[in-house]
Design goal:
Elements (H helix, E strand, L loop, with lengths): L9 E9 L6 H10 L5 E2 L12 E2 L13 H4 L4 H17 L9 H4 L2 E6 L5 H13 L9 H5 L3 H10 L5 E4 L5 H14 L5 E8 L4 H9 L30 E9 H6 L6 E10 L12 H14 L8 E3 L6 H15 L8 E2 L2 H4 L6 H15 L1 E2 L22 E2 L4 E8 L3 E8 L4
Parallel strand pairs: 4-5, 4-6, 9-10, 9-13
Antiparallel strand pairs: 1-7, 1-8, 2-3, 6-7, 8-14, 11-12, 13-14
Length: about 425
């Protein structure tokens, strides 16, 4: 079964989440609808002198609940989160483990995940060992833990997917780009099923220090962490570091129908562009974001007025939120003021390469439930950000088509169009 351009249609049959506001999709979604913040004081030592001491961490996460202790000790935290989220996604898709399939069938199942930095805390820990003791005392598992590709590798190994595998490492755009790339793998016939999304667990002192020195983090709400992430608000002052994983099971439509899968959505378009502008700042007019959004809409063969809701990148940084607003106005014209927009990061912080996967999971539930989650902490309107950001309270609405935006450091932009499935 093909789309209007003769390409294989790609549907979503499973969703999995591990986040600061829930270790599963239902808990995560209920918290988003309720406007619950997952931002708390960071569980790090010796950070009293840092200007930002808060973050959205995955609390009470015990990997041995999902895997044996030996297995868990050989994985970096970002890979653990990916494996757990992928397990939920596969279970909800009706595929569960793939080792019951024939070898030929397993080669038609692949993995494509995004991450911004991979095993950052593990690198910091290894560096401390090297300085205090010797480089020869570093764990033999350090290299296979810290490599960015090891989330995808571990998901593939644990669940038995032996087909196409890849990792996108495009900073904050990585999870969304991974979804788009996975769609393309299925479209061209390279796989029937792709486990795709993003995972990140990079919160550590060196990361906190690095982002602090470029003044990227929120510093005004250490005493009231739940108020720190305030996308599009006039008093926003930086993003809140976070971790998590969001994974979708993507599937060729015909393959999904043949096995009687429950289809929860469709990814009909995607776009990726580069600003080619600055190391960390977007151009003021958001030109790269404009081109990525238009590319995604064109790929989906829809017009801007067909979009019912935009899940914004919405990081809570002064420059990015204003640039995204300008870009949306450029793409949507008069329709921009009529289109509800919200930022998932207002509640779960900014988990870099995992963000796109988590936001796609939220988009799927938005379509299913007919509810748009709010942008919390929106209290002081900014003349530069004057659109409908669904402030502070969830809103009931019929949503059939969503544009989800992710814009990363280095000027790397990725957008996907997620739609309600209709045969």
């Amino acid at each position: 079964m093909t789309d209007s351009n003769g390409r294989r249609r790609v549907v979503v049959t499973g969703v999995g989440v591990v986040s600061a506001i829930g270790h599963d999709v239902d808990t995560f979604w209920d918290a988003l609808k309720a406007g619950k913040s997952g931002v708390t004081p960071l569980p790090l030592e010796d950070i009293d002198d840092y200007p930002c001491r808060i973050g959205a961490t995955v609390q009470d996460f015990d990997p041995t609940t999902y895997m044996d202790r030996k297995e868990s000790r050989r994985m970096a935290r970002f890979a653990q989160l990916a494996v757990v989220a992928a397990g939920e996604a596969l279970e909800s898709s009706g595929l569960s483990r793939l080792d019951g399939l024939s070898n030929d069938q397993r080669t038609r199942h692949g993995v494509l995940l995004g991450t911004g930095i991979g095993g950052y805390p593990e690198t910091e820990a290894a560096a401390r060992v090297m300085v205090k003791r010797s480089g020869t005392r570093i764990s033999p598992y350090y290299i296979p833990m810290m490599l960015p590709n090891m989330a995808a590798a571990n998901v593939s190994r644990v669940y038995g997917a032996t087909g196409y595998i890849g990792t996108t490492i495009t900073a904050c755009a990585a999870g969304t780009q991974a979804l788009g790339e996975a769609v393309e793998v299925i479209r061209r016939g390279g796989a029937d099923v792709m486990i795709a999304g993003g995972a990140e667990a990079g919160i550590c002192e060196i990361g906190l220090g690095g982002f602090s020195t470029i003044h990227a983090l929120s510093t005004s709400s250490n005493e009231t962490p739940e108020k720190a992430s305030r996308p599009f608000d006039a008093n926003r002052d930086g993003f809140v570091p976070a971790e998590g994983a969001g994974i979708l099971v993507l599937e060729d439509l015909e393959h999904a129908l043949d096995r009687g899968a429950t289809i929860v959505g469709e990814i009909s378009g995607w776009g990726v562009t580069s600003d080619a502008h600055h190391l960390v700042h977007p151009p003021e007019d958001g030109a790269g974001a404009v081109r990525a959004m238009l590319m995604a809409l064109n790929d989906a063969d829809i017009d801007p007025q067909d979009v019912d809701y935009i899940n914004a990148h919405g990081t809570s940084t002064p420059v990015n939120d204003a640039a995204e607003t300008r870009a949306i106005k450029t793409v949507f014209g008069e329709h921009a003021a009529k289109t509800p927009i919200s930022s998932t990061k207002s509640m779960i912080g900014h988990s870099l390469g995992a963000s796109g996967g988590l936001e796609a999971a939220a988009a799927i539930r938005t379509i299913k439930d007919g509810v748009i989650h709010p942008t919390i902490n929106y209290e002081n309107p900014d003349p530069a950000c004057d659109l409908d950001y669904v402030p502070n309270e969830a809103r009931k609405a019929e949503v059939n088509t969503i544009l989800s935006n992710s814009f990363g450091f280095g000027g790397q932009n990725a957008c996907v169009v997620i739609r309600k499935f209709e045969e």
